[in-house]
Design brief:
Layout (H helix, E strand, L loop, with lengths): L40 E2 L12 H14 L7 H5 L2 H14 L3 E5 L2 H12 L4 E6 L4 H10 L2 E5 L4 H10 L3 E8 L11 H11 L2 E5 L14 H4 L9 E5 L9 E5 L1 H10 L1 H4 L6 H16 L1 H21 L10 E7 L1 H13 L2 E2 L2 E2 L9 E6 L6 H14 L7
Parallel strand pairs: 1-10, 3-4, 3-5, 5-6, 6-7
Antiparallel strand pairs: 2-8, 7-8, 9-12, 11-12
The chain binds pyridoxal-5'-phosphate.
Length: 390
């Protein structure tokens, strides 16, 4: 019933796969990390734009708490749905160019909701092999048949869509993959879904706030609107710096979710103050494109540096920069060696990534400077084995 280190099991040594929770004593996305020493630098946060600690967002939250109280006091369908939630939903719909948007407590529950509300035993759900765990769990909750296609391979998705046991259901992909940082071939997938008459869903947890003319995410960057991507899901706890998630799409989709999605109906609404803070965060994304430009500059600078040093970086255009190390042990060793140099970079191991693909997941943020990246490159150059990724 309880796990011992021996029971984890894998080709990697079991002890190398045990997770521990580190206690952080400072905000995220900031560049400081006390565990990494007084001058420590952290590259471990999804707060890609540094908005979690941005004063206007923090102030919107405290102002919101004074206006609305701290908790929402109920589920959306009973008493918890406030004007603040409503305003944020309208703003998110307008921003992403969708008819309506619906807020969820978090991304995990948003994904469970979509799959449970829209699919049942007779449906089939076709997903990228590297999709997030919440998308697998959603299929389980729905009872639908699950088919997984090779990562990023449109032809493989088409093959599974054609193979057709079960009624058409959903084709689901992330916009930017959370552990690889690469883009999904969204245009090809949208065409494949249309040809097979299945509904296309994109989880843009790591794309929202970063890409698109106003930071609306990878769908906007590919000029894919509601017709091409009828279900757009994104989280608020990453680039937007707050917490929660939303699904955007047609009024009919949103109404279906409200009426049917159990992880939506049977949970307390997000604190309204969080909705207030997120409204401001969204405004910052739109009005301060220099944050994104600075981040893209850092990404380019870091990648160029890694290439010059011959480091085994996997190809990624995003703030998620995976450095391939293979075994869990190698990833842990490098992560620990970096920590002794005051650099905080998490080792990502199975089962979060497939066996033999353990890596460092380096997260860059607009709160970093070029000097910070120089220090990271110096540390990596000192401790990283020069390997060739597969
Ligand atoms: C983080 C993440 C989620 C879950 O969102 P939370 O708000 O953290 O629950 C879902 N999908 C993807 C791709 C994610 O990276």
């Amino acid at each position: 019933m309880f796990m011992s280190p021996e029971s984890v099991g894998d080709t990697d040594c079991a002890a190398d796969l045990i997770r521990i929770r580190r206690i952080r004593e400072a905000p995220s996305g900031g560049i400081r990390h006390p565990d990494a020493g007084r001058d420590g630098l952290a590259f471990d946060s999804n707060d890609y734009l540094g908005l979690a600690t941005y004063r206007p967002v923090q102030e919107a939250w405290s102002r919101g708490a004074r206006i609305w109280g701290v908790g929402s006091g109920g589920s959306h369908l009973l008493s918890g749905h406030t004007r603040a939630h409503e305003r944020l939903e309208e703003a998110l719909a307008a921003w992403t160019g969708r008819e309506r948007a619906l807020l969820f407590s978090n991304g995990y529950m948003a994904n469970l909701s979509v799959l449970q509300a829209l699919c049942g035993k007779r449906h089939r759900v076709v997903q990228d092999r590297l999709n997030h765990a919440s998308l697998w769990d959603g299929v389980r909750l729905s009872g639908a048949r699950l088919r997984r296609y090779a990562h990023g391979k449109v032809e493989d998705a088409e093959r599974l869509l054609r193979s057709g046991e079960g009624a058409p259901g959903l084709l689901v992909s992330e916009g930017v993959f959370s552990m690889d940082g690469d883009w999904a071939p969204l245009t090809g997938l949208a065409a494949a879904a249309r040809a097979a008459r299945v509904t296309f869903m994109v989880d843009d947890a790591h794309g929202i706030g970063i890409w698109g003319p106003e930071g609306q995410g990878t769908c906007a960057a590919h000029a894919l609107g509601q017709d091409e991507v009828p279900i757009l899901m994104a989280t608020l706890g990453k680039a937007l710096g707050t917490y929660g998630a939303f699904v955007a799409g047609s009024a009919a989709l949103i109404e279906t979710l409200i009426q049917r999605a159990r992880p939506y109906r049977y949970t307390t609404a997000l604190p309204p103050a969080l909705a207030e803070a997120t409204l401001i965060a969204r405004q910052c994304v739109i009005r301060e494109p220099e944050r994104r430009e600075h981040l893209f500059g850092l990404i380019h600078y870091f990648k160029t540096g890694c290439t010059e040093l011959g480091l085994p970086l996997l190809p990624s255009p995003s703030p998620i920069q995976p450095l391939w190390l293979g075994s869990a042990r190698a990833a842990l060793d490098v992560s620990r060696a970096l920590a002794t140099r005051g650099l905080w970079v998490p080792a990502i191991r199975p089962p979060t990534v497939p066996r033999g693909q353990a890596r460092l997941r380096i997260s860059l943020s607009a709160s970093h400077s070029r000097a910070n990246i120089d220090r990271l490159l110096e540390g990596l150059s000192d401790v990283c084995p020069r390997l060739n990724p597969p």
